[in-house]
């Protein structure tokens, strides 16, 4: 259910979130918030009118977040990251500016990992990013198949050392996704 038994270090959290243009953010989605280590740091940076949708499959984590983080900007959802598009729509949102994930992609069934990556690429606005922290390189090829630009970096001052990934959705990719959706609907 979790990628590590040790909470992610503050250095890794800060480095992963640093590229976010917080003054322009209207919606952030977090996959697998667990006990809220990243959730709290995202809320610390989030503007007063923005929203954070935290999606977790574990009802105990969702209940924990609802009890321990009282913030009107936080929306806790019990569900799958693969359903991110529907979850956004259910809350009156067309797209996320950023999606943050600590899901352990290397332990997910391949079809589930593929489905989450594809849904994420469609759910992020053009110019937005998928920010991922992992403990292996497994997710890199998945990101490269679904996003136009992918950058990654190691953070050694974390137990275990963390791998950070930033996958950007660009305008060309957004147009190609829209065209493929139109073809599928025809």
Task: Offer a concise description of the structure.
By secondary structure, the protein is α/β, with parallel strands linked by helices. It is about 40% helix and about 25% strand.
What does this structure look like?
Strands 3-2-1-4-5-7-6 form a 7-stranded mixed β-sheet, with helices on both faces. The protein is built from 7 helices and 7 strands, in the order αβαβαβαβαβαββα. About 40% of the residues lie in helices and about 25% in strands. With about 190 residues, it is of the alpha/beta class.
Output mean pLDDT. Answer: 90
Query: What is Rg?
Result: 15 Å
Computed structural class: alpha/beta
Which regions have little confidence, pLDDT < 50, spanning 5+ residues? Answer: 1-5
> Architecture, according to CATH?
3-Layer(aba) Sandwich
SSE order:
HEHEHEHEHEHEEH
* CATH fold-type name: Rossmann fold
DSSP strand tally? 7
Principal-axis shape: globular
Strand content: 25-35%
- SS field, number of helical segments: 7
């Amino acid at each position: 259910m979790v990628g590590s038994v040790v909470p992610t270090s503050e250095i890794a959290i800060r480095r992963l979130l640093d590229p976010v243009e917080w003054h322009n953010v209207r919606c952030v989605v977090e996959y697998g918030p667990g006990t809220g280590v990243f959730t709290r740091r995202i809320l610390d940076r989030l503007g007063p009118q923005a929203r954070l949708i935290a999606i977790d499959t574990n009802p105990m984590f969702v209940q924990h977040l609802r009890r321990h983080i009282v913030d009107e900007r936080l929306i806790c959802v019990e569900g799958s990251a693969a359903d991110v598009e529907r979850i956004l729509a259910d809350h009156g949102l067309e797209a996320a500016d950023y999606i943050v994930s600590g899901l352990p992609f290397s332990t997910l069934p391949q079809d589930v990992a593929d489905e989450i990556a594809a849904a994420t690429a469609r759910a992020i606005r053009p110019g937005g990013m998928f920010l991922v922290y992992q403990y292996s390189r497994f997710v890199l090829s998945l990101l490269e198949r679904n996003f136009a630009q992918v950058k990654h970096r190691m953070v050694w001052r974390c137990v275990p050392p963390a791998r950070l990934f930033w996958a950007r959705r660009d305008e060309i990719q957004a147009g190609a996704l829209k065209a493929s959706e139109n073809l599928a609907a025809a």
